[in-house]
Amino acid sequence: MTQDRSDMVEMGNGTTRQRYAYSPTEKSAILWAVAAGTIVGTFPINWAYVRWGARYPFFLSGLLSAVATGVSPWAAHAHLYLFIVVRFLQGIAYAADFAAIGIIVVRWAPLTQMAIFISFLTCFSPIAQIITNPLAGASVSVKELGVIQEGKTKEHIERDSFVPYWEICKNKTILVVWLNALTELIGYIIMLSYAPTYINKVLGYSVQQTALLATIGSAIHFPLKVFCGVLSDKITFVSEKTKMWVFNTISVGVAGILCGLIGVSPTPTLAVVCLIASTSIMGVNAGAFYKCGSLHSRQYGHFVLAMIQFSKCVALVIGPLMVAALASSDEDADGWRTIFIVNAVLMLIANLAFYFTATDQPAEFTKITRHTKEKEKSDHEMDKVA
After folding, report:
1. Are the C-beta atoms of residues 380 and 194 closer than 8 Å to each other?
2. What's CA 246's distance to the chain center, in Å?
3. pLDDT of residue 131
4. 42 C-beta neighbours (distance < 10 Å), count
5. How far is CA 29 from CA 32, 83, 272, 319, in A?
6. Are 282 and 255 in contact (CB under 8 A)?
7. Alpha-carbon span 379 to 364, nearest angstrom
């Protein structure tokens, strides 16, 4: 589209440009609009899920997404600002995804199949909706219900709309889970969004070669995510904690090392190999911090996964901001090298912290329910009277 010289616009200073040949700042604004919309939408949508269930909020979010996506070509053609507003609306709708994933994992996934569920659902694969559709509740047999509820606490099974937000947000394991998600997502978003630019402008590959090379990592990412999700749940000869250490080391630690090597590789070929490998193995994360967050938070996993969605919004802001701040142009090899090294350091720090906090045991806050909170409040009032 940017090569179509028949669709030019006046820039106001006597110059023209192709309508869709956005500047780096405009490209960043288009990405930031989605992030801003998702940030705005994350907490209200998560609250709506807890208050009314996922069915209607998710439907309305899907409807908003469909309408916004449908008018995007028109908005992009009409004006950049209008396109940014539409992207903001897409971001609001996008906020519904991870909270819905959390609801499904918490309510429908047995503890022994957490990673399988997460791997399918975080790929947004249609098959996941067939397997775990919450609307199919009437068809669940007593035996199936027993499998789903096996090992879960009474509080996990007898869920209500109560969520101990503060207790979750100050839990060190959950904070490290969110840190790993954030650092990995920053790296993934930069590589996903800017790989074509780096491969073409810095490494010197042709447009046709770039189009192929930039998609290989994403193509490997999906089947690897599903495979490792199944593998994480099926391996039984090592502890859950050890498995989470291994998968997190691969998806965050090794991926971070490969990310750092992209900018210092002696040849373009090696740089591309590192980029593809880093993007691909990030798919192992279903058995890593995702699984840790779900197992540790149990019945409150929907909020923990929703906050991973929130960290994706933050990553959508930080990633383009890093590129804008550190790379003076698309061809700035030194700037890109700094970006990749900074990403690598952040991911390695997050992975190191994971070794000290990862656990598959339920957190203390999972014992907090509406009933225990009300009892605590009542006891406190009685003590004051006494």
Report:
1. no
2. 20
3. 36
4. 24
5. 5, 10, 27, 12
6. yes
7. 20
Q: Comparing C-alpha atoms, which of 317, 275, 276, 284 is closest to residue 34? A: 317
CA proximity to 286, closest of 166, 177, 368? 177
Q: Which residue has the tokens 């090899």?
A: 333
Q: What is the C-alpha to C-alpha distance for residues 93 and 191, in angstroms, rounded to an integer? A: 24
Low-confidence ranges of the chain (pLDDT < 70): 1-17, 19, 24, 98-99, 102, 106, 111, 114-115, 119-161, 376, 378-386
Give the tens place of pLDDT for each residue, 302-345: 788 878 877 877 887 788 888 888 988 888 999 999 999 999 99
Q: How many CB atoms lie within 10 A of CB 88?
A: 19
Q: What is the DSSP string of 40-101?
A: HHHHHHHHHHHHH-SHHHHHHHHHHHHHHHHHHHHHHHH-HHHHHHHHHHHHHHHTHHHHHH
| Rounded distance between C-alpha atoms, residue 284 and residue 119, angstroms | 8
Count of C-beta atoms within a 10 Å radius of residue 180: 30
- Phi, psi dihedrals of residue 16, rounded to the nearest 5°: -130, 165
Q: What angle do CA 60, 62, 65 make, to 5 degrees?
A: 110
Report the distance separating Cα 239 and Cα 217, nearest Å.
30
Nearest 5°: the CA angle 55, 58, 224 is: 110
Strand-strand pairing, 16-18 and 8-10: antiparallel
**C-alpha triplet 291, 292, 295: angle, nearest 5°:** 80
What amino acid is encoded at 291 in this protein? K
DSSP state of 363: P
pLDDT tens column, 343-377:
999 999 999 999 999 999 999 988 888 777 777 67
